[in-house]
Amino acid sequence: MSDWTDMTLDDVAYIQIGGTPSREISAYWASTPDSGFPWVSIADLKENVIVETKERITEKGILHSNVKPISAGTLIMSFKLSIGRAALAGVDLYTNEAIAAIKPKDTRIYSELLYYVLPIVAQNAITDTAVKGATLNKASLGKLSFRVPSECRKQKKIVKILNTIDRTIAKTEALIEKYQQIKAGLMHDLFTRGIGADGKLRSPREEAPELYQETAIGWIPKEWKIKSLAEACDWYSGGTPSRKNSDYWDGDVPWLSPKDMKLFELSDTQEHITRSVTAISYRIMPKNTVFIVIRGMILAHSFPVVYSNNEFCFNQNIKAISGRGNLDNRFLAYWFVSKKSIFLKKTTESTHGTKRFDMKDIYELYIGIPSNDEQNLFIGKLDLISKKLQLGQSSLDKLQRQKSGLMHDLLTGKISVNVNPAP
Questions:
Q1: How crowded is the C-beta side of 388, counted as CA atoms within 13 Å?
Q2: Which of 60, 128, 296, 387 has the most CB atoms less than 10 A away?
C-alpha cells in the first residue's frame, strides 16, 4: 500500500479541549432552550451531527471558564469515560473537558475521514502498550497513529461510500422510531378503548359515554372485567443453582436472567442448566409464559418483559406469570409492556440501593380483561406492528454489520477505491 501514508493526529490536526463553567453560578447556564450557546457533553453524542444540546451556557459562562469556541463542521470526539464517540458540529458550539475538537491543519487529511478513523484508533489505543493503563489526554490523543490514502480525493471517496450507508442506517432508524410511536399510541388506545364488535377501536368515552364504565383504574369498556394481578394471575419465583457444582450448569434448559431480556419474545438464553437440578428445586416454566424483572438496577430506567417461545428456568430477580381463566398470556405480556411507566413509578430501593418492587404493591394493581375474542384482536394488531418493528431492527442490525465490515476493508486498504485521474 505505497499510496497510503502513516501519520499521527498531531501531524495533521489541531486538538482543542473543552471545559465546564461552574455549576454553582446559575448565571453561567442558560435557563431556556432558545437562549445561550450549545454546550456538548458525552450524553449529546448520539447523532452524527450535533445541532441541539441538553444544556446551554451563557456569555458569562464562556468568559469565566476554559470553554473554547468550536466552529460548525468541526469534528468532536469523547476521549474520557465513553472513549471514541464522535460527531460533527452542526452549528458553532462549545464542549466539556471530556470532549476534544479536532481540526485539520492542512489538506493532507480530510476532516470527515477522521470521523470514521479516530473512534477506532482511540478505542484501540486504550489497550495499546504505548498508553496502556493511561487515561487518554491531549498528549496521548496527539500520539494516535493511523494510515490513510495519501491522495485526499481517495479519502473523500471513502467518506462518500460510508456516508451512503450511514444515510441508509439513519432512514432505517427513523422508520423504527416511527413504528415505535405507532405501537405506543396503539397500545394506549387498545388498553383504554378496546375493540368493538365491528373490529374497530371503540369511540372515545367523550363521544360515546354509554360504552364505558368507571372503575378503580378509570373508565374502561363496559364488557371488560376488572381484577387485581393477584387474582388474575399465577406468580412463580425463580432462583440460581450453586455455581460451585458443575453438574448443575451447561445443560439443555435455558436459564433466564435480566441480561437476557432485551427482546419481547425470546427463545434462548445465554446460560443453561441441567435437568438434574431442575428436578430438585428449580421450576421449568412452559412456552408462552410471561416474565418480568422485579429486582435490579435495570429498573432504574427500563421494565423488561419477555414472552417465552421456549421452556425456561429463571433466576431470583425475575417473576414468571401465567394468566388465570380467560386471561391470555400474550395479551398479558403486551399489557405489562403498555404499563411500563406505572411499574417504574412503583420501584423502591433495597438497603443496598438496588431497585426492586414491593410485590404487595404489584399484586394490588388492577387489569382490565376483555373477552377472549377481543383479546385475540388486540394480539393480532399488536403482533402486526411488532413484526414491522422486528423487521426494521433486523434490517438495522444487518446494515450495521455491513458498515463495520466495509469500514474495516476501506480503512485498511483491503478494498481499494478508484478515482478519476487528476487533470
A1: 16
A2: 296
